[in-house]
Amino acid sequence: MSEQNQRKLNQFFASFIAKLRKWLIKVGSPFRISRRFVRSLLNNQGKKRSGQGGFVLPTVVMVTTVVTLLVVVMVARSSERAKTAANTRVEEAFRSASTPALERARAKISELINDPRLPAATPTDSNFNNVIEINLDNGKYTFADEIRLQLYQDLGTTTAGTWNAALNGQIDTGLPVENNRETASTVWKFPIDTDGNGKFDSFSLYSILFRTPVNVLQTSPLRSVSKLESRTRPMDESALTSICTAAVSAGANVAGGGWIPSGNLLKKSFFVYAATVPITQATPSTTLASIVPTISGTVYNPSNFEFYTGNQSFNAIELQQDRSRTPLNNNAVWFEGDIELARTPPFKLNGRVFTNSNLMIGALNGSPIDFYQVSDPESCYYKQENSKIVVGGNVVEGDALSQDTSLEGARFHLFKGAGAANNPLTVTPSAVITIDNSNSTANNFGKDVAFNDSAYNVRINLLVQAALGRWTGTPSVPPQSFPL
Fold this sequence. Notes:
Blueprint lengths: L2 H25 L7 H7 L14 H58 L11 H8 L14 E6 L4 E3 L2 E3 L18 E10 L9 E8 L4 H4 L24 H14 L4 E3 L2 E14 L36 E11 L5 E5 L3 E4 L4 E4 L1 E4 L3 E4 L6 E4 L16 E3 L3 E3 L12 E4 L18 E4 L10 H4 L3 H18 L14
Parallel strand pairs: 9-12, 10-13, 11-14, 12-15, 13-16, 14-17
Antiparallel strand pairs: 1-4, 2-3, 4-5, 5-7, 6-7, 7-8, 17-18
Helix pairs in contact: 1-3
């Protein structure tokens, strides 16, 4: 190669590497090409090295190619990492935005479980629906910044009580809630500000679904599980033997109301689905006024909103919350007032006892009163919860009228612990305690603590009647926050 051609080639590569170096600086790549490195590549310019002249061009081409490939790979990786980091930040922001929806759903479930409008017995799916969804809501379960929505699914048709899975293209709202109703209005949305600039740019949507699937309530399901129902049954945390499993399955048919037996409890699943959706323009002509409803006195005003800018993301969360309660029929004895058990023939009771007031016991000499566990230690129902004695007031000896010191206390057989008799945690089979006045330093009798609930009820009724007598207007019902 002539010296002139060698010089032109070196100038070409020098210009190429200089432009590459400027481009790396411009894009902010961590890889740099120093001037010293460039000079080391081109230090043969103007020198005649007959023995090495044929190796200059291949060496420069190879090094330049390797450097170019390394730079391209590193820049591509850097761009990919930057994009991944940006998407991760957006995903975290939308996930954090879904957290308030979960908290709102938890609060509504807790309020629904304890709503005083529910019946005193175990509420059914229909009772829950009447309180939170239909005309009894009156805005209680719809917060000030929320709009209630509705889900629907065409499940098929029913003819003379027979289910037909063929879709009829209609949404039936009059079917029984527990079975095949095709709508659910326990869905809400509210606006959120994901970038913290004071304007809402996204909507958070969440639903609370509590209807028990038909394939759980029926041994031969008539249709598949609906999207308007709980996705699965409650989790059973108890380890059941084959015998106990059969016992629980038999009890499932008598639970009813959407509650599933689990050990000595009734359980029900509440499913919460939450999603955060950015407000975007479907077309260039889409305006905020066409997306955001104008509702007087609320945050729903187009001036409070903006279209979302930046990387778009979608985040969805599913939450299953199992609620349980001890059914009323799990108690052998249940009293709101005092329980008085005195001067009886020999008396034996197996099972759970509950009273919101006092427990007064007095046995005659030779006629003992015994409280046993619910069943044998090897039984499926031998659990501490099934034989508890819950007393809201006092446990004393005697009856409510006299102070007879000749009465004796009752004998209580203690819980031995789960498992066979060899269980090291069990107490001895003879562990029986007697509760009488010898256990108390106050030496009180039933006559000293008896509660006159009749007088209390009469007083409460008089106060209610007096309050109603002073009211002359017509009670008003607060309007629902937003229409369906």
